[in-house]
Prior knowledge:
The chain has helices at 54-61, 84-94, 110-121, 125-138, 154-166, 184-199, 211-214, 252-273, 275-311, 339-346, 382-386, 398-402, 412-418, 462-470, 488-503, 513-556, 558-566, 571-606, 617-643, 647-652, and strands spanning 10-23, 26-39, 43-47, 69-74, 77-78, 95-98, 172-176, 203-208, 219-224, 227-233, 317-322, 351-366, 369-378, 390-393, 407-411, 429-432, 435-443, 456-461, 477-482, 508-512. The protein is of the alpha/beta class.
Amino acid sequence: MNDVPATPAPLLELTHVRREYPSGDEVFAALKDINLTIAAGEMVAIVGQSGSGKSTLMNILGCLDRPTSGTYKVSGRATSDLEPDELAALRREHFGFIFQRYHLLGDLSAAGNVEVPSVYAGTARAQRGERSRQILTRLGLAERMGHRPGQLSGGQQQRVSIARALMNGGEVIFADEPTGALDSASGEEVMRILQELHTEGHTIILVTHDMKVAEHAERIIEIRDGDIIADRRREAAPVRAVRERPVLAGSAFQQAVDRFREAFRMAVLALAAHKLRTFLTMLGIIIGIASVVSVVALGRGSQERILSQISTLGTNTLTIFPGKSFGDMRSGKIQTLKDSDASALAELSYVDSVTPSVSTSVTARYRNVAATAQVSGVGGEYFRVRGLELLKGAVFDPSDVRKLEQIAVIDENSEKTLFPNGEEAIGKVVVVGNVPMRVIGIVGTQQQGFGGSDSLTVYAPYTTVMSRMLGQTYLSNISVRMADNVSTDAAAAAVTQVLTKRHGTQDFFISNSDEIRQTITSATQTLTLLVAAIAVISLIVGGIGVMNIMLVSVTERTSEIGVRMAVGARQSDILQQFLIEAVLVCLVGGVIGVGLSMLVGLAFSFLPSNFKLIYSTTSIVAAFACSTLIGVVFGFLPARRAARLDPVDALSRD
Length: 654
Ligand code: ADP
Ligand code: MG
C-alpha cells in the first residue's frame, strides 16, 4: 500500500465471495456470490434493507470475518493466507472501524479510548498523547478528552470512535451504520466528518440502510438478499490515496512494556469494577496460602523447639541404655550396667566425662505438702553437661557422690510446690520417698516436650538414690561426653568394645544425640509435608475458583475483546490481559495470605505455651511463586479462550 500505482490497482478485491451461516440443519447464505473491487481513495456506500447482508460484507472487507468460499485480496494479497495476528496487524495499521453503537471501552477516558490502537501498534507514549489530542481537538472534543464514554452524548461518542479509527492513520475507514443511533444533527455532523476525511484521501466504506445517508457517497452499491443488485458511481471524483503514516514506533522493549502496561491497567480496572467478586475469589487463595505458610512455619517451629531440647543433651554425648533398643521390654530386667562400667569408660581417652544416672518416681514431702516427683540420681557434672542453670545454692561434688550424701538439688517447680509460701528452701530437709534429704541448690526447670514442664524433678547423687532409695546396684543409663575432635563412630566403637568385654555380651545399646536429632528432623519434615499437602489442596480449590471467575469475566467482556481485536490487538495482547488479571488476583491473595499467617504467628506468641511459628524466607517466596503459578495455570484456559475468540463473534455479542 506504500507505492503509488500508475493505474489505481484495486485496494480491496472480492471474487465469488460467499458467506454461509448454519441455520438449523441447513446453511443460510448471507452473501451469495459477491464480486467487487474498491480502489484506494473511494467513498463507497453499501445500502440495503435490514438483513440484506451489509454488515456481513463489511466484516469480511474489514478482515473481522472470513468468507466461506471465494477470495478476498487486500492490495493484491489473499487474506486467506494470513494468520489471525497478521490480520490483526492489517487492521491495526491500515483500517479503522466505526460502529453503530460506538463500542467504546467504558473504563477509559475519551483520550484513552482513542489511544488504544496506537498502544497495540507500539507508538511511543508522548507521540500517542500528542496525536490523540490533535485528532480529538480537530473533531471538536478538546474539552472532553478526560471524559468517560458514559459522560458523553451519542454524537460525541461517535466522534471519539472516529478519532480512534484515525489514530493509526485509518487509510481505510469502515463505518457500519455510523448515524444509526444518532439524532439527525449529530448524524449530519458525522457524515460531514467522513466526507472531509474522504477529500483528504481516506478510503471510506459506509454501510447504511438509509438512502439519504448513502447519498453522501460518490459510489453506491445496493445489496439485497446477499447479492449486489446495483453499483452506481454518481461522479468520477479524482481518486487519491492517503499517504499519512503516523505510526512512530518506540523501541521493541518500550513497545512490549507499553502493551504490558495497557494490559495491566485494564486488568486492574476490571478487578476494581467488581470488588466484592474479586475479594471472594481471592479469599480461596488467601486461605490456601495462609494455611500452607502457617503449617510450614508451625512445623519448623516445633522442629526447632524439639531440637533445642535435644541440644541440652549436648552435641557430643553418647548415652548407654540397657537392652537392645528403646522400647525393648526386657530392658528393665537387665541389671548389668554398673557404676564400675562408668568408671571404666571414664578411663578411655575418647571420653571427656561420664555421668551415670538412675531415675525413679517417688513422693516428695515437706511438712504438710506432698507431691509426686521424678528423682534423678546423677553425678555432679550432670548439671554442666545438660546446661542446667543454677539459680541458688550449689550442686554436689564428687566427694558427695562417693560418700552417698543425703543431699538434693531441686528444680524451680519443686521449689514452688514444696515451699509455696516463698520460704527459703536451701538448707531445709525434704523427705524424698522415705529418705530425708537436705536441699543444697535450686536449678532451672528442664523443658520436657510441649508445655509438659509441670513435673517436679529432684536431683540427688546417683549413689544415694541407688543404695538408700532403690536398693539397686545397677544404673538406668550412662551418659558419656566425648572428648573434643573425636568422631562419634570411633567413640561408640570404643565404648561398645569396653562394655562388651566387661559384660561378656552386648546387652546394651548406645543412643547418640546426632541420630536422635536426625530422626526427629526427618519425622517433623515428613509430618509438615503431609499437612502442607492437605493445605495445597485448598490452594487448588482456590485456583479453580479463580478459573471460574475468569471464565465469567471473559464472557462478560466478550464485546470489549471484540473491540480490541478490531483495533488490532494481537492474540497475545488479549491473552496477556486476562492472564495478568488472574495472576493479580492470586498474587494479591498471596500477599494477604502471608500477612494473615503472620497474624496467626503473632496470636500464637501471646499464648502461654512458649511455642513459636518460624517463617522462613523460602516458604514466603515459595508462597508467592506458588500463587503466581496458580494464577498462570488456572488463568490460562480462560485467557486462551478470550484470545481465540473470533473478532466478529466477539463484536456481535452484547
Ligand atoms: P444487515 O447488516 O444488512 O442488516 P447482516 O449482514 O447483519 O445484515 O445479516 C445478513 C443475514 O445473515 C441476516 O439474515 C442475518 O440473520 C444473518 N446473520 C448475520 N450474522 C449471523 C450469524 N452470526 N449467524 C447466523 N446468521 C447470521
Ligand atoms: Mg447490519
